[in-house]
Amino acid sequence: MREGISRRSFIKLGTFAGITVMFGRLPLAEALEVHSGRHGLEWMGTDGQARYRWDAVRKVTGAKVFARDFRAKDLPGWPEAQSHAFFLKATRADRTFEGVDLSMLGPDLQPDRLVLHEDMARDGVAVPQPADLVTEFYGKDFLTPKGTTPPMYGQPVALLVYDDFDRFEAAKRMLRFEKGAVLYGQETGFKPPANYGAARYVRIGGATPTDPPEFSPMQDAVIWGGFDGDAPTWPPADGKGIFVPQSVVLKHRGGGGVRDPIKVAHETYEPMQRGMEAAVLIEQDIEAARADGDKFVLQRQAFSQSIDPSALEPDNGNAWYDAETRTLHLLIAAQSPYEVARVAALMVKGNTRFPVEKIELLSGTTVGYGSKDHSIFPFYTIAACFYGNGRPVRMANDRYEQFQMGMKRHSIQMDVTITADRKTGQFEIMKGFYNCNGGGRANFSFSVAQVAATAAQSIYYFPKSDLGSMALATAAVEAGSMRGYGTLQVMTITELMVDEIAAELDMDAIELRRRNALRAGYPNTQGAVQLGDPRNVEMLDRAAEHPVWRNRAQAKAQYDAAHPGRRYGVGFAQVQKDYGSGADTSALTLAFDAEGKLTMRHCVQEIGTGATTAQQVLVGRILGKVPDEAYFGETAFASLPLVSNFEPYTITQAQQDDLQKDPFWVPFILPAMSASNSAYFIGFGTSQAAQFLLEHALWPAARAIWSEGESGGQIASGEVTLADLRAFPGGIGGGGMSPIPFEQLARKAHEMGLVTGVSLHCFSRWEWARAEFDIPGIGHLTLPVDALAVRYGDGAPAALKQRMTVGGYDYIRRSNVQFPPTQRNNAGVTTYTPAACIVELNVNTFTGQVEIMQHHTLLDPGTVVVPELVSGQLQGGTAMGIGHALMEELPLYEDGPGDGTWNFNRYTLPRARDVAVWSQTADYLAPLSETSPSKGMGEVVMIPIIAATGNAITHAIGKRFYALPVTPEKIKKALS
Q1: SS3 content of the chain, % helix, strand, coil (to 5)
Q2: pLDDT digit string (tens) for 278-294?
Q3: Topology of 584-827 in CATH?
Q4: Taking Cα atoms as reference points, which of 976, 895, 945, 954 lies closest to residue 153?
Q5: Contact (CB, 8 A) for 882 and 915
Q6: Threshold 0.70, pTM exceeds
Q7: Lowest mean per-residue pLDDT among 143-157, 232-246, 594-608, 737-751
Q8: Strand partners, 465
Q9: What is the CATH number of domain 530-581+830-976?
Q10: Where are the chain's structural domains?
Q11: Which regions span the lipid bilayer (predicted)?
Q12: CA distance 348 to 603
């Protein structure tokens, strides 16, 4: 370990491809922002409620937080001096790249090192190709080879490295809009990679929603497609032989895997063929409904645009290759540091020009909205550092560069049909096809397309459905796992269509929704029943009684009369957003010493949602005390030496049954962070760890303390059980017993040699894995965890202490572990959060400008952990939704951001005046019970306001819009 960094500063992540990977955090490199470690508790109020985020003061006072704030000189052990680098990028994607011309820089601003593809190819520096991700997930080449056509606009073609910042900055500014620096040759047309995938979800239900279906993806199969050019192809309903799909990917955010298409074709051909037969029947039913006067068929084509996430921190990284020690040092901004470390090891494996034996990775807080989820940028940073001549190389996008090469939200073209009974308003069929533009790099595009298709039903039950999607490779800028993950686009269109159906049937729009809403026990369009009560009807009932909705007709008449040239409108929409990935994990260690100091090490990575605050509050609610020391973004736990094949979506049941014989094997190890997975999925593990200590440490200790004194103490005369315990700020009480401070409980637990520390790992595939553990001193337990280790207190017998050989813990080998079947992933999702929104606005009929006057959101967040964090997510999400509805838009090709000229002077974000910042309100449904879990809601809050805004515009001016955003120009054209 280098001088200035202690052995404890880095945690051994593991060995990948024979390379030792170490992980640390910025404060361990003398960063000012105390992101992890010992901290004061002034952020926690005396009532046990968080007063503000635990890291808030340092953030608002300008302390270093983000990786972008650091230079090599800030990092102990790194050289003082460092280099800086930037890319030249292709602004044409229809001609071959033939080289660069830097003559306009003159002799003084020439780069100290110019790197082209041929240099990297010679040196073995190549884009990593993880076997468990889709082919060319991170692209094919870092830089475009000479004589070939760039796969997309904004693709880097050359790397320029400078040893001093001033020359670097001057050259970068000079080349920013210089078209002549990149030389092009033969016109070839676009040459994107192969299309990313197509999938189809067909379901024909039984006689009632709860009867077994005739066909469903969960019961039978997802239908996988191929391509004929850019058109999807499907197994023929009456075909012979085997249809081999182009690709088969079972993946949602946070991980995944690839299955062999030929193998899948043989395994699922028969059910896929039956699915296509069902699709034919559905199409016949639609045509019959068109000819039936008692039925109404609405078919609409729609479009949802590409947007930029506009995250606070653009992509950046700093890397240093120390050839002497064969160590690669990384400082990155990423939503999944674990994934970066794992893939980085694969990238440098076997390189003889730049041999790497150890990787030391530093990470800090970041904000990405998905743009830093499995991004290629950290690997660009690694590639650049090999050309720093022994100095660290920093790469940091400015806003022009971020627009040019940062990941975008997918644009989606949609063709949707809904049939309904005219008399009852009951929906009967939904058929939709969703064409996602994935740009020139695969990333999660096919996964987004799959999620889009599975989410399109919104809050409604459809007896029959045929929902297909595809992800096309194009010359547009890469699109990835942006906030919303495809659901925002598709549910918006569904909600706009529901309002049009209500108008055609002369029915109140909320009443139509009420008649068709999913109830408890109803399956989704994949055939899975969601967790718990959807509460859709309850939310609709509450929305129907809101004064803005109830009085909308009278308010419109009055407003329009009083404001010539303006038209008043009210709109409503309700959706439900999934949260989770189908391979959700959580890992942490929670322990206390004899003085009562509580320490937590946790896998959660802060991305701006306040997850690190919420996890501590969860502990405080159960134990009566929040951690004194908290370490976040952990990527390895010495007490949990887990292994995985990283294929949680594609592993067969037989393979899983065989692998789980290894007591250290789990389907997936650590999660990538998204906006919605911390409260429920990651918080589940936190709650399990705290509850374990409550039951097996604090409760026995409290019982012993309450039993002290004559006649068995204060507890002897009553019947006090574990269920009677209640946390209070600072300790534990309940059952009428005198409250005991946490410090006293800790001393007693250590004296008694009880379990005083626990490490655990949880895994969910839309159902939590469970295992049995035989724990010394406790006995046989069945727990919803798949790995468990414990630490015994100071007073434990020597025999127990001798068991603590795995990172200072006793790793309890499980028995009878039950991992959920992989078939559950055919269902798409089972965890949802509903949200609704009422929007009041007016439209200027002369300018086409829309003014949001107020909006009211209804949300079911489950048990709220930190109310202020929910409010913050809600406010930010509604602003994002308004931007998507009315103003944010990026062209896809030659005039889009890939040309390098886009910045916030051209890209309009909503300001406070655009989002009714002083007149927005919200109503949270109370939990159904005190045991209701928290729900993921970081993404759903931005979705209903988009369709509600569109529906309000229709109410105002009588025109419907199915292409987003609804700009003033579109409104003026519609009114002309």
Answers
A1: 30, 25, 45
A2: 999 999 999 999 999 99
A3: Aldehyde Oxidoreductase; domain 4 (3.30.365)
A4: 895
A5: yes
A6: yes
A7: 232-246
A8: 203, 430
A9: 3.30.365.10
A10: 192-306+408-528, 530-581+830-976, 584-827
A11: none
A12: 25
